[in-house]
Amino acid sequence: MRLLDRHMSLFSGSLRTLMQRESDRRRWADSSYAWLFQPYMGEEMVALACQVSPGQSPVVSVAAVIFSPGRVHTSQAWVATLADERSNSATLRRHQQLYATDKVLMPNAEHLGALAEFIGNRPLIGWQLERSLEHLNHLFKLGIGFGLPNAQVDVGKLHYRQLRRLHPQSEMRSQIAEALACWQMPVFQWIGVLGDATASALLYLRLQREAARHV
């Protein structure tokens, strides 16, 4: 996977996480989900964005976008808001408006399984990905029994590492818009969680090209 070779050190995974993934792989070896735990041998990745409302019954808006070295497939993105019957209706409407989602789905095994199959065993990338996955993985564990086992890379950390190479005194910025501006990338037309996921994918590809220039 040429797309990943330069940044293997940025893949998240504590020893505890890796042990949990291996335990899940063995547990689900005879299930229809077994293929999700197998190594991915292609060049596609999935950019993930997730926004969560606070509260006892959080509302979660998610976008997953498949991309390859030459193209981001926004027309085939998985975009939805996950909310159960206990979620506050006003919060739900506000989430859909803020994050531009058309579908509201129950976070049950059927819908979470559909998202897992859309992502497949491709590596996941995203801005501050660990924070985005925290609550989403909680829903996955409740709904289908395991968190997403995919390899993961945080685009924010990748951005910061490459920026420090060029400007050692630079400071870490917390907003993806600042990172896009730093690399002189244009404003994108997409909004909401789809916009966040698409921007993460395009920024990742831009950083890959930048890294190739300095090999």
Can you put this structure into words, describing what you see?
This is DNA polymerase III subunit epsilon. With 215 residues, this protein is α/β, with parallel strands linked by helices. The protein is built from 7 helices and 7 strands. It has helices spanning 15-27, 89-99, 109-119, 129-143, 155-166, 176-182, 192-213, and strands spanning 45-52, 60-68, 71-72, 78-82, 104-105, 124-126, 152-154. Strands 1, 2, 3, 4, 5, 6 and 7 form a 7-stranded mixed β-sheet that branches. Helix 3 packs across helix 4. 34% of the residues are buried.
Mean pLDDT: 85
Please identify the structural class as seen in this structure.
Answer: alpha/beta
Principal-axis shape? globular
CATH-defined architecture: 2-Layer Sandwich
Largest sheet: 7 strands, mixed
**What name goes with the CATH superfamily?**
Ribonuclease H-like superfamily/Ribonuclease H
Protein name: DNA polymerase III subunit epsilon
InterPro entries: RNaseH-like_sf
